[in-house]
Amino acid sequence: MTIKPPFGHPIRNTHFSFSPTYVPLNHGSFGTFPLSVTQHQNQLQTQALERPDTFIVFDLPVLIDESRAAIAPLLGVDVDEVVFVPNATTGVNVVLRNLRWEEGDVVVCFSTIYGACEKSLVSVGEVLPVQMEVVELQYPVEDEEILGRLEERVGKVRQEGKRIRLAMFDTVLTFPGARMPWERLVAKCKELEVLSLIDGAHGIGHIDLRELGKVAPDFFVSNCHKWLYTPRGCAVFHVPFKNQHLIRTSLPTSHGYQHPNKPPEKIDGKTPFVHLFEFVATIDYSPYACVPAALSFRQKICGGEEEIRKYCFNLARTGGAAVAKILGTHVMDTKSGTMSQCCFANVALPLAFGEGKKFGTDEAPRIQKWLNGTAVREFDTYLQIALHGGIMWVRLSAQIYLEGKDFEWVGYRLKELCVRIEGGEVDR
């Protein structure tokens, strides 16, 4: 007999540590993790306190190897093709700062790129001969158009005599929360002979990535602390064997670095790539070692990855629709529905922006800040809000500890806040 996972408020009350009054509708930004993982991390940190040298030198490498072995099947890749870094931004920077750029080299990305990654590209371009080409996307947009725009921009740049070395894109966008056709984008990159770097910050634990090894991007990084339920400061970094020679140093450069004039060698049976990231300066590595505990919770308590996705995807659709109905607006989606195959719902707010409208687009940041702050102070929740395509959207995250009534609750709170904005409360 299969026992239905206790999703919704039962699992929240039993397995998570939220304040009783807090309504967590923004899981996508920083994630959270269950009590069992908290307890496991506490045990690890206690071991580190009791025997610091022993834990760091002897225990930690074994624990990290166990985590690599546990996570590799979720990506369908070899265990020696995965290591851990603190976050997706670090992984992106590792790639950008390891590739040897030459004059005329270009990285192409989309306008929906995560802000820190865009700034990383700008920063690298300050000291190395690489330029950034941005492909504009305004959602909702169909997958075919995304692919076409990438191919068109690559062709244009090549006509200018420049070389597209790398294309960077997401699995699921940060804002708006939308699934990208990352598998087809990787295939397009191969066709165009361009390296692919996937910022999969919202990937593992969110969408099915078991075919990643077959899709075979050149570089991939994904935060485990967003959707996989590990403590914050843990991301899986995948580099296939064929590209590992391109990654010469961690960030910062640490003990795993091998001198360029010496042939790479295994150390303690570890490949140069694995050894490079095993110990990168002194930080708290306990989040890396919590991967098995997180996966155990997902399997034993939640019923596995498919059950989690099924619940969250459905809640995002039904919950988003409920909020839109309350607000008298709509949920962002495409005719094909592919962009909404994730745990996010983007709901339009009933506020008019633009020329001849109630609010100018220049007023959006002020209104967004007021909405964020007021929701925190008055309703004990956090709202991820931004202007996109001339419309102000709220991005809501569906999770196993939420129910439809949580979405209805925030719908009425948002309606009240928007009425207050229309009444001029922001200007007071």
Automatic annotation (TrEMBL):
Gene3D superfamilies: Type I PLP-dependent aspartate aminotransferase-like (Major domain). Coiled coil: none annotated. GO terms for molecular function: transferase activity. Residues 64-240 form the Aminotransferase class V domain. SUPFAM superfamilies: PLP-dependent transferases. InterPro entries: Aminotrans_V_dom (IPR000192), PyrdxlP-dep_Trfase (IPR015424), PyrdxlP-dep_Trfase_major (IPR015421). PANTHER family: HERCYNYLCYSTEINE SULFOXIDE LYASE, L-CYSTEINE DESULFHYDRASE. This is PLP-dependent transferase.
